[in-house]
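Chapter summary example.
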Amino acid sequence: MRWVYLALVVLFVGATIVFAAQNHAVTTVSFLQMSIQMPVAFLVVVAYALGAVTGGSLFALLRRSIQGSRRVMTAS
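The structure predicted for these 76 residues follows.
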């Protein structure tokens, strides 16, 4: 199973490198009257990182909430 995970990581890294090489054009991102220019590949990496952080935080919050409710139910 370790080889399957390693192969998936290698494929993901390879796809990321190809994506970054093919999408080096600069784009403008605007938010609340602010704008910044950045390569498309960098924009995708930032969006992915923000999604991973917020998704992980939400998952941890839900897990803690479920564990807390189980403790209350067993204590009653």
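To summarize the output: The chain has one domain: 2-75.
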